[in-house]
Structure formats: structure tokens, C-alpha cells
Design goal:
7% of the residues lie in helices and 42% in strands. It is mainly beta. The chain has two domains: 15-408, Beta-galactosidase, Chain A, domain 5, CATH 2.70.98; 413-514, Sandwich (Immunoglobulin-like), CATH 2.60.40.10. It has a 15-stranded mixed β-sheet that branches. Strands 2, 6, 7, 8, 9, 10, 15, 20, 23 and 24 form a ten-stranded antiparallel β-sheet that branches. A four-stranded antiparallel β-sheet has the order 26-27-30-29, with no helix packed on it. Helix 1 packs across helix 2. The longest helix has 15 residues, at 15-29. The protein is globular, with a radius of gyration of 24 Å.
């Protein structure tokens, strides 16, 4: 879903309730340009009821647009701009809304409703709200329909409304905090990702935007999700800031048994890094994030560097009541990317903090081979233990943060770089080199007996050693761990390592998969 465009790039419902929900359900799924009567007293409970009723009915494919708008290229679609003076709520308040017209791969119009004082009114957009001059179209389309929207807010300057979030395409959305540029994406739900079944991409069919008070610094959105496997109701409370936070409630109703339902799914791009093969490119590294970070239910902090593998790779991390997981961008210096257009050093990390107990399950990481940086090839999500059965109601609440202060999540020493190399005069061996910084490490003299506690599930560890690095202007007090190992030629190996001082852990746990 790399082509997402922004201003850059069960408990069954009682039968008595079924009839009561038919009218709002019809409104939610109707084409957004039709006039509809206003609803009264609308609450999130009503959206949840719509989702429950929707799951009882057979899945119905969305309506697709055709014509020249559907045939637009990525660049031409991206060139369509909304006129700022037509933004919703431009008359007052800190939040404004601009719309994306249906076109290109975003060919499924959605219903968008505005909610004020408990009353919902459908939105109809017009061609006059957009500048089509650079779109390549021979003439301005007569009719347009919404495919999504973006929220703006005076995030970086009091006199400028910056984009803070965008909802566009299936159930994808993005958020950014102060000083950040769009990168990784979140989704409402992932179904059958990296399984033998074809993956489903659930779609947000309808949105309700609750108008905030003029001085409000948060905004609430409701959404109705639909797919062949499930229907769902989502509530998003968005608070922009240095960390933009999206507090999320997801209520799902399964149409069929869901063996792999991805909760709080995150999607990103990792094309090349320090451990990648040599490339014909002036940029040293290309990625929106460089690792998966976990805070487990029993308090262990784990860092798993990402890669662009030769074949599909799926890693699982079993846990009970996780405290957090996310795809983070730890390398924040321009020199590490040398890309003046992409601003990769300013891409946000996405961090998920469960609210309440999530029970038993696993964090699943999917790394997909990619030959282009335009592909989102990294996926991470929570998979509950066992399937969600047909007819089940499943609820999850969590806090999603778009952040760039990754160090605040890691009070101990943290991984800042991962490299691999050959071992001189030992053709059967490989060398893993990991750098740590932060925590107590900057206070330790080079003579301190810092050691590496390393384990390997297959193959053989030949030797390990640790050294303090010279003081650097950018990173103070970093330490480097070396692991020379002889891999098993037949199967991959899982490696775990932590730096210690006299048996006490100094750092988070580094984990990776070493492939033959």
C-alpha cells in the first residue's frame, strides 16, 4: 500500500435491535452523494450495532468508480490538490478537514458524515474543491466522490495548518507528530497476512467526524469497517503534539472463523541498511523504520532489527498481556540516509500500547522481499491466541503514538546499529556486530568488565567480545559487541544477546534470525 497519497507521498445482537439499526446501516453504506435524513442522538454504540448487523448479512462488494479518474497514474493523482479555502471547519477551531477524491487505486468511494450535537449529516464533495491543473485530465470531472480525508492542525506553527493524519485506502491511515514526515502506516485490521489463504484487506466503508469545540486539542472519529471475514466499529481519538496519539477502540464481529486476525497492524518499508548487500546507490540506507521493539508482559525490552530478506520471513514473539510493540526508526541523522527529498531521518516510529489486558497471543513480524523502496514490505501486528470464531465479538483498545523520541522508550542501553561481516581467514564463519548506547553505558570506563551474554539455537558460537568505542560527537559512550559464529548450513538460527556488567543486564535484549 505504498502508494498512499498525502500532502507530501460475538455476542449476537438481539432481534429487537436489528430493525432499529437498519436505517443507520443503510445510511452508512449508501453512496456519499445521496441526500440522507439527519440522525439524532448518534453514539458509538450505534456504530457498533451497525457493525454487528453488517456481520449478520452476506458480504457485499463496494461500489467502484470508472472513467478517467480511475485511470490516473500515481503522480497525476498525487498532483490533485484540495483548495485550502474549501476545508471543512475553516471558519473556526484548531482542526480542519480536507478530502481526497476517488481515483487511481483509491477507486472505492466511502461515506463521510459530520456529527454535531448528536446529529449526522452526509458530506458531498464537489469538483470545485480541487485543483486538477496538473492531473493530466483533459477536462475537470463533473462529479467526484470522497475516497478519504486528511486532518490539519497548527502543529508546528500557530499560523499554519499542518497535516497530522490521513485516512485513505482500505483501512490504512497515517499520523505524524511535530517535525515529522509521513512514513509507516497503521491499519484497522489485517486478516490472513502471510498465510496460505489470500490476504484480506478490510475497508473502512464509512466515517463519522465529530466536530470538536473551537478550543479543543483532540478530535474524535468513528468508522465502520467491512470485509468478507469480519465487520467492525472503530473509535479514534486523535491528539496532535510532539507525539501525535491515536487512542483506538476496535470492536470486531467475525463473519467466518479467523485463524489469523492482526490487531493493531503496522505497515512500513525497509529496503536497505547497514547489513544489506552492496548497492549501486549514493544513499547508505533506505528505510522508514529499522527495527521492531517489544515491551513484553513481564517487562523484558527486546529489539529485533529489520531486513529485506531473499524470501518471505515470518517471526513470532509469544507473550501474555504485552505492554507495547512498534516499528521504530532509531537512526535519526541525515548522514545515515543522504536523501534530501525523502527525509527518512524524520519518519515517525509507530508505537502501540495496549489498554487493558490482551491475554495470550503473539507479536507477528512479516518481512517481504522487495526490489523497490516504493513497496511497503514490513508488517507487524498482535495475533490473539487461537482463532476468532464466526459470530464472535472481539474488542481491543490501544494507544497508537507517532513518535521520534525512541530513546524515551528504552531506559537501559539500546541497540543503535547492526552490521554483518566475514571473519578473516575463516570462510565458514560470519561476524555479527551490534552497537549499544544509552542507559549506564556512557558512565562506564573502557576498562570495566562489560561482557556479552549470547545464545544461539543452532550452529556454533566461536567467540564473543565487547569493546568501548571512542567518544563520538553524535553518540556518547557507545559499546560494540562482536559475535563470530559458524552457521548451520541447513537451517536458520535465532540469536539473543544482552550486555552485562558482573552479571547484571545493562541493555535491552537484542534478537535476530541468522539465515544460512
Amino acid at each position: 500500500m505504498r502508494a498512499m497519497v498525502s500532502s507530501f507521498r460475538v455476542v449476537l445482537p438481539p432481534l429487537a435491535l436489528l430493525a432499529a439499526a437498519l436505517l443507520p446501516l443503510a445510511l452508512a453504506l449508501s453512496p456519499p452523494t445521496r441526500a440522507q435524513p439527519a440522525e439524532t442522538g448518534l453514539t458509538f454504540a450505534a456504530i457498533e450495532q451497525m457493525a454487528a448487523n453488517l456481520a449478520l448479512a452476506p458480504y457485499r462488494e463496494p461500489v467502484y468508480i470508472g472513467g478517467e479518474m480511475k485511470g490516473l497514474s500515481y503522480d497525476h493523482y498525487r498532483a490533485i490538490r484540495s483548495h485550502k479555502d474549501t476545508a471543512l471547519w475553516r471558519d473556526a477551531g484548531l482542526f480542519r478537514v480536507e478530502f481526497f477524491p476517488a481515483g487511481f487505486i483509491y477507486d472505492k468511494p466511502i461515506a463521510i458524515n459530520l456529527v454535531e450535537a448528536g446529529q449526522a449529516t452526509p458530506v458531498a464533495i464537489k469538483s470545485e474543491q480541487f485543483d486538477f491543473s496538473d492531473s493530466g485530465l483533459k477536462e475537470v470531472p463533473r462529479d467526484v466522490m470522497p475516497a478519504g480525508f486528511k486532518l490539519t492542525f497548527p502543529l508546528n506553527r500557530p499560523d499554519k495548518f499542518d497535516e497530522i493524519a490521513a485516512f485513505l485506502g482500505a483501512s490504512y491511515f497515517r499520523a505524524i507528530g511535530r517535525g515529522q514526515f509521513y512514513g509507516s502506516s497503521a491499519r484497522g485490521l489485517a486478516i490472513d497476512t502471510a498465510t496460505e489463504r489470500p490476504e484480506e484487506f478490510p475497508v473502512f466503508r464509512s466515517f463519522w467526524l465529530l466536530r470538536p469545540k473551537p478550543d479543543a486539542q483532540e478530535i474524535t472519529l468513528w468508522a465502520l469497517l467491512d470485509s468478507p471475514g469480519a465487520a467492525g466499529a472503530f473509535a479514534f481519538v486523535i491528539r496532535p503534539g510532539a507525539r501525535t496519539i491515536v487512542e483506538t477502540t476496535a470492536v470486531l464481529f467475525a463473519r467466518r472463523d479467523l485463524a489469523v486476525a492482526g490487531i493493531a497492524p503496522l505497515t512500513s518499508m525497509y529496503f536497505a541498511g547497514k547489513a544489506s548487500p552492496p548497492r549501486d546507490d549514493y544513499r547508505p540506507e533506505i528505510h522508514d523504520c529499522d527495527g521492531l521493539y517489544l515491551l513484553t508482559g513481564h517487562g523484558e525490552r527486546i529489539w529485533r532489527p529489520l531486513g529485506n530478506p531473499a524470501t518471505l520471513a515470518v517471526s513470532t514473539f509469544s507473550d501474555s498481556n504485552p505492554r507495547g510493540f512498534g516499528l521504530l526508526q532509531r537512526e535519526r541523522a541525515f548522514e545515515q540516509y543522504q536523501d534530501t527529498a525523502a527525509n527518512l531521518q524524520d519518519r515517525p516510529g509507530l508505537w502501540v500500547e495496549p489498554i487493558g489486558d490482551w491475554g495470550d497471543g503473539e507479536i507477528r513480524l512479516v518481512e517481504i522481499p522487495s526490489k523497490s523502496e516504493t513497496n511497503d514490505n514490513i508488517v507487524a501486528f498482535w495475533k490473539p491466541r487461537g482463532p476468532i470464531r464466526k459470530g464472535d465479538r472481539f474488542e481491543a483498545r490501544y494507544r497508537l503514538s507517532a513518535l521520534s523520541d525512541e530513546a524515551a522508550l528504552s531506559p537501559a542501553g539500546r541497540v543503535i546499529a547492526t552490521r554483518t561481516a566475514a571473519v578473516p581467514f575463516a570462510p565458514k564463519q560470519r561476524r555479527l556486530v551490534v552497537e549499544f548506547a544509552g542507559g549506564e553505558l556512557p558512565t562506564l570506563a573502557a576498562e570495566q568488565p562489560v561482557s556479552a551474554n549470547v545464545s544461539l539455537t543452532s550452529g556454533k558460537i566461536v567467540r564473543t567480545y565487547v569493546e568501548a568505542l571512542p567518544m563520538q560527537e553524535r553518540i556518547k559512550g557507545a559499546w560494540r559487541m562482536f559475535v563470530d559464529y559458524e552457521p548451520d548450513s541447513a537451517k536458520p538460527a535465532d540469536l539473543r544477546a544482552v550486555l552485562q556488567l558482573r552479571g547484571a543486564a545493562l541493555t535491552e535484549t537484542f534478537v535476530t534470525t541468522l539465515r544460512p
